[in-house]
Design brief:
The chain is built from nine helices and 22 strands. The two termini are 41 Å apart. It has two domains: 231 residues, P-loop containing nucleotide triphosphate hydrolases (Rossmann fold); 136 residues, Beta Barrel (OB fold (Dihydrolipoamide Acetyltransferase, E2P)), CATH 2.40.50.140. By secondary structure, the chain is of the alpha+beta class. It has a six-stranded mixed beta sheet, sandwiched between helices.
Length: 383
Amino acid sequence: MSETCAVRLAGVWKWYRGTVVPAVRDLWLDVRAGELLAILGPSGCGKTTTLRLIAGLERPDTGAIEIGGRVVAGGGRFVPPEERGVGLVFQDYALFPHLTVEENIAFGLRGFARQERARRVQELLALTGLEAFRTRYPHQLSGGQQQRVAIARALAPHPAVLLLDEPFANLDAELRLRMREELRRLLRDVGVTVILVTHDRDEALALADRVAVMLEGTVVQVDTPERVYHEPRTREVARLLGQASFVPARVLGRLGRSDIGSFALEGAEEPTEQVELLLRPRDVVLERHPEGLGVVVDRRFVGAETIYRVLLRCGITVETSQPPSVELAIGERVEVRCNRARVAAFAGDERIGLAALLERLGRTRSADAEAPVAGGADGAAAS
């Protein structure tokens, strides 16, 4: 195993008693040392089971798990949780109600000398901003403060890996946003390898260095937040990561034409005549034009932006977020331009390459008018 790999899962399967479908199936995952990896997926996809397998709270039925280059499960070997060098923060924090903040933090330091234990507790109180609350009990703390205590307790014995199970699930929306920033700062300061499990895509995209998308018990894509969002491997991943519209396009050789402009198809291994281009809400620029290929069919003001739904000539309805400066009425014709140089191109359920946009609609309207894009209202469906 590479020295830069902190955790590796190799071909891991896990069944629970009485179930036919595995909770985790053929799971392969490498976590780099020092990174924050988010495992993102819907409820029941195996995220928490994966975390429990890494922590040693569950045994894999087949496959192997390595931490820091050491096999901790697999091949007849099973290292108990307390010997794995991992810290685990549960969704409900699991603080001891009868212990104070500093006593909770010190709980994992029983093998330390008294002076070293006191020094480490003080260091973590300062790092997490809890010095003023050291003598309080968990019920006297806010949700955000309880979370910081749980993280400080997990970090106390200097774990090689910190595991976080839905750490913001019990916080209200406003506090969740604030704690997300605090947690990112805290973990950067500590420099520990972190695996975070979440079903919240905004949380995963905002916090992670890389995102592992998990569906039906296995990881289907691992990449940077930007790439899993803009270049998802499948339609299912695309929809999990946010609002997705798929615009049909016709391809001849490597050149194609769509209602959002002409493009060159890159990366496709097999020739194809029809593709669909992935558009996210902020990928689109709308411009009022009497001969535009789109018609505004709905609008919703949501404060910082306005959400428009635009029906394209091909029959697809695109949902797009626009700044307050864009003011369009329902029924108005608009040009729809993509503000990205490249968008993901799909054939069927799989991404086959990227479409590098060559021309804007304003320059190609007359040519496009003579050659409408195949698909029509039945050619694809907006997500």
